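Write out the 3D structure for:
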Amino acid sequence: MKIFLTHIGEEAGLAAVLKRWIEDTFPGKCEVFVSSDSDDIVPGDKWLNELDQALTDAGLFLVLCSPRSVRRPWVNFETGCGWIKRVPIIPICHSGQAKGELPLPLSTFQGIESSQSNFAKELLNAIAKQGSISKVPPIDFVQMMKEIRDAEQARITISGTPEPPATASTATATQVIELKVLAELLEHDRPALHVAETLGLHEAVAQFHLDELQMRNMISCHGTWGPDELGGTYRLEHAGRRVLIEAGLIK
């Protein structure tokens, strides 16, 4: 069974811990896609195609939900892709996010909380059920929970400080795609309003992506969206250019 794990950049460490434990617990039976993992999307891959294929192939969606991530548009967008496909979705609430306080539409799915002592068992049992796996093999649940707690603490430390400089390893696949599109549009003197058209996205979805890039200081916006079209003018900033250079997409 292929699992799509959606998360925000500063929670990549927790996503990596969950990916490793899930795949090691169910070897050959579960494959977890994490867009921040260089083994899932490597330099040279067609980023948008890889992401789209992972969304298409997924038989289960795991959503890392923290008070910070549930406000991010891209997490909700990817979750919406799973909902449209009618794929089972499990919100994983952590870092103070209670499942009873999830916003819509995440609150419509049955979530689990990492703060619960039986969280690791509950998560792996749910995955086994969705993947028609007879039972969860014996594992070191204590060690799994310790690594989860450590990753959560690291995430709190990161989110409590200014965002680190963006790099090719910390930028998500979608962010790199958007940056590359913007760079090409600017090079050919085409306005940024063509971002949605170029990627074949609805304008509202393109706005989600651009908002994420602005939050990471990879682009800056001069102007706003109009009622009928993308009205802002976007500029690729130093951090965004560095990401593209490190990814080998520009010189």
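Residues 141-159 form the longest helix (19 residues).
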